[in-house]
Structure formats: C-alpha cells, structure tokens
Design goal:
By secondary structure, this protein is mainly α. The chain has 3 domains: 186 residues, no CATH class; 169 residues, no CATH class; 137 residues, no CATH class. The chain has 20 helices and no strands.
Length: 544
C-alpha cells in the first residue's frame, strides 16, 4: 500500500457532536464501574485497552501513529539504557588517562540515538501538521520569483492530540538520556503512560516519572477520590459548557465577518474569545484532573489563575504550565547551558553587566522557545506572530526591569501596593487579549486588519439586539456567562489567597457537599449551551 494512502487513512470523529455526550453518559461510567469490578492485576490492562479504544473512536485507524510512537520510544529508550550500561562498564575498566575519551565516545553514541528518536517523531509531526504550511509558502515564494513551478499541496489527516503525545514521548527519551528516568522495559506500561485517555487529547503534558508508576500501580477507586474527582469534573464542565460554548457563536461570527463591525465590537469579541479559550481549556483540564483523580492518578496542574499575573512572563508560568515547563527544560535550558552560550554570557557580563549580560544568551534561547511555541499551536503565520509577540513582550520586560525598579525606588512606589498590582494585572490582561486576537484571527492579515480597526474605529454603534440575534446569542447569554464568571472569580480569589476551596468543601457535612454537587449539575443542565441554536463545540486545544 502506498505511504500516502497509509498516512491519509482513518476517519476523524467530531468529539463534541458524537463522542462527548457518549463519553459522559456511557464511556466514563462504563470505565469507572468496570475498573472498580475487575481484579487489581487486570486494572492497568483495562485502562490501557480503554485508552486505545478511546483514541480509536476519535481518530480511527490513525491510532497507528500513537502505537508507532510508543514502539519507537520504547526501543530507543532500551537502546539508550544499553549504551549507558556499556559506558559505565567501559569507564570502570578504562585507565584514568583515557576515561574522558571513552566517556566522550559513548556520550556521542547516546546523542545519535536521541537525534534519531527526535528526527523520527518530529519528522512525522512536521509531515502531518506543517507540510501544507511549508508547501503553500514555497509556492508563494516561487510565484513571487516568477518560477513556473507549483508543488502539489499534500493532504494528511491529523490524529487527535498528536502534538501532546509527541512532546510527552520526547520528554521520556530526553529524561532517559539525562539519567532522570530509567528506560522502561515494559512496553505496556510505557504505552499506558502515553495513551491514558483523560490526557491524550489536550494534555497536560506529563513526565514519565510523574504518573507512569502510579498508572501501573492501578489503585482501587476510593470514595474520597470519586467524590472529589467528580466535583472537579463537574466544575470544569460548567466552565466549558456554560461559559465557553455559550460565547462561541458570538466570537465565531465576529472573527469571520469582522469587516462588518466596528473596532469596539471586535475588541469585545477578542475579550470574549480570551474568556472562551480560558474557560474551555482550563475547564477541560479540570475535567481531566477530576477523571484522573477518580482512578487515583495525580496529574500535574496546567493552570494557576493566570489572570492574576502581573507580567507576561508570570502569565506564561501560570497558563499551560506543562507546555511552558517542557520548553524550559528541553529547549531553553539546553541552549543557555551549552558551552558556546556560557562563553557568550561570560563575555557579555564583563561588557554590559550582570543583569544585561545573561540576557544575550537568554534572549537567543527565549526566541527559540517562542518560535517553537507559536508553531506548536498551529501551522499559520498568525501563530508565528503570536509567538514573536510574546517573545517581544517578555524580552522588553527583562530589559526594562532595572529601569522600573529604579523608578519605583526614586518615587517611593511600593510594588506591593494593591492598586499598583491591580494596574499590573489589568495591563497584563490587555496585552494577553491582544495576543489572543491574533491567535484566533483567520490569518495574520485578518488579525492586523482587526487590530487596526480597534485603533482607528473604536465604537459600539452596531452592538444591539438585532446584531446579537444574527450572531446566534442574546443579552441573556452574556448575563448567564457573566454570573458564572463571578462565581469562578470568587473561587479563584480564595484559592489565590491560599484558601483551598475544594479541601474546605470536602470537610463540610455531607448535605452541604452533595448540595454543591447537585447545584453544579443543575447549572450545567439548565444553563449549558447545547440543543437547538447551539452548534457542538469541540475542545479548542484538541486541534493543537
């Protein structure tokens, strides 16, 4: 069978329209009940079968990519481990004067193994996700140069969550190389780590030593984990279904037909999209962490109230935390700690000081992180711009940090003053909304035109009842979304102050606890955006 046919095989399923209702009503209850009933020694295998069944349903025969990734990383890991063992043996037998030579030879072998693993898996990701982007731009360049050649644009189906499980698999092989993780000789344990159904679609991007052993240990379901897990699951679904999905029709229309609306309406749509994205993604993460907790698995947090951030740099330490940590550990640190960058930093320190000196090498690493971050989210120029936008903001923040400190000191401004911190939060949120405008825009050109209208034509003259009806919403939609947002904001403030609302609730009497659970269910059932007038909305980050 030709490779192009194999790569194009499979039938993708709309997750929301087909699978999400079935997931709630059938798949998840079936998994919980069956997992609780099967003997302990079979629980882990049941989770593995359920995870592959889940992936097969949403991606069809494209499940072959997940299986191939798992197999390749399994054997690359064993190869690395074998090479490391050989190095230790050779080092113990080598004479003192040649130990460095022996070590260098084996380190080089390990690097070649890692390079092959990265090339294979990143190569597949580039082929499936970015071949169209590169081909279109090459054709545009050829046309600009008047070269009479047009390259056929390839068409491949993209497995759900490929960017997530690719990065997760690479973190495993990097950690084996660095000695952080021992290569796993059990193929099924590694397969479960890479396919666990709650995290396979949208993450978070877990490390092997965070969840692999816990998954394989397959603990029994406890009453506490079941109730706390369902509580968080319901809270996440409220954020997604009641807020994110309710705002979707308005956002979709304005971003598609922005030319028909004033800059103020576009700005409002950008704010709504930022809220939608946060509620959708963080809500999905709440659901993921909740389901994982039911099975006794502690999955790393992916959000930590990002809109309380006082700078863009802090924002990205609170938003999509596991992706940021992945880029930090496997892109930023390797670049800044390389031999050439250490020499550059030492030289720069002597010439421009201890603050600006490290920023030279740091800026190169930061640029690499953000070009990768932008492209990771999508194969289009607006995503590249999105990455460069945040790179520029973080770089500027690093550059002016001493100036800001000097200014505050001179004019006796206390950085801990409430209104000063509030101003920083508002400024950061505005900058984030602008970035999300370009992130959501249908192309960089459209994003630039939308931003220009926000500056030159800022008004709300067309924002009325008739316009909202055309967008598929009404004022009540915004009232409902706003009311739930206030509840979430209050909970977030309490959590930010160190008051763990979930743990506090867990200590209350059973009537209060279950009363809250039923209220969550009623809010989702009564105010959720579904049925006539609402198109199903797939989880937004599933496309990445």
């Amino acid at each position: 069978m030709p490779l192009s046919i194999i790569l194009g095989a499979g039938k993708l399923v709309s997750m929301t329209s087909l699978f999400v209702p079935a997931f709630f009503a059938l798949f998840l209850p079936f998994c919980i009940i069956t997992y609780a009933l099967v003997p302990k020694k079979l629980k882990k295998y049941f989770l593995l079968v359920a995870s592959y069944g889940f992936f097969w349903f949403v991606s069809g025969t494209l499940v072959i990519y997940l299986a191939a990734t798992t197999l390749s990383m399994h054997y690359f890991g064993i190869w690395l481990d074998y090479t490391q063992g050989k190095m230790k043996s050779a080092m113990s037998q080598a004479e003192k004067e040649i130990k460095k030579v022996v070590k260098k030879r084996y380190i080089t072998r390990q690097r070649y193994i890692v390079l092959m693993a990265v090339s294979l898996n990143i190569g597949v990701l580039l082929l499936l996700k970015y071949s169209k982007f590169f081909t279109v731009n090459i054709n545009d360049l050829l046309a600009f140069m008047k070269v009479p050649l047009v390259i056929e644009i390839p068409k491949y189906l993209l497995p759900i969550g490929i960017s997530f499980f690719t990065l997760q698999s690479l973190s495993y092989i990097f950690d084996v190389y660095r000695g952080v993780t021992k290569a796993d000789e059990n193929l099924f344990r590694l397969a479960l780590f890479l396919s666990f159904f709650p995290i396979i679609v949208e993450g978070p991007i877990c490390r092997y030593n965070q969840i692999a052993e816990e998954l394989w240990d397959a603990k029994p379901i406890t009453y506490r984990n079941l109730t706390l897990g369902l509580q968080r699951f319901l809270f996440g679904m409220m954020k997604k279904i009641v807020i994110a999905d309710r705002l979707n029709p308005f956002v979709k229309v304005i971003f598609k037909d922005y030319a028909n609306y004033e800059g103020g309406v576009i700005a409002f749509a950008a704010v709504c999209y930022t809220v939608q994205l946060y509620m959708d993604f963080s809500g999905s993460m709440d659901a993921v962490l909740g389901v994982s907790q039911i099975f006794g698995i502690t999955v790393p947090e992916n959000f930590k109230r990002p809109f309380f951030s006082k700078s863009i740099s802090e924002f990205w330490k609170r938003w999509h935390i596991t992706l940021g940590m992945w880029f930090r550990d496997y892109v930023f640190y390797p670049i800044t700690t390389s031999g050439k960058m250490k020499k550059l930093t030492a030289s720069a320190r002597k010439k421009i000081g201890n603050h600006y000196g490290p920023l030279v090498a740091g800026s190169i690493a930061l640029f690499s992180v953000w070009i990768c971050n932008g492209l990771w989210h999508g194969s289009a120029w607006n995503f590249v711009f999105f990455g460069m936008y945040h790179f520029a903001l973080i770089l500027c923040g690093n550059l002016i940090s001493p100036v800001v400190k000097s200014f505050n000191h001179r004019f006796k401004i206390n950085p801990q003053w409430f209104f000063y911190r509030l101003l920083q939060m508002v400024r950061t949120s505005v900058l984030v909304v602008i970035g999300e405008l370009f992130f959501r825009a249908e192309g960089l050109k459209n994003g630039l035109q939308m931003f220009r209208k926000m500056i030159t034509d800022f008004s709300f003259s067309s924002l009325n009842t008739d316009m909202l009806v055309k967008c598929g919403v009404d004022y009540l939609d915004f009232v409902i979304a706003g009311a739930i947002l206030i509840i979430i904001f209050i909970i977030s403030v309490l959590n930010e102050k160190g008051i763990e609302v979930r743990e506090t609730l867990a200590k209350k009497n059973i009537f209060l606890r279950w009363g809250v659970y039923y209220i969550l269910i009623l809010i989702i059932v009564i105010f959720g955006a579904y049925g006539i007038g609402y198109a199903p909305v797939d989880p937004l980050y599933a496309q990445f």
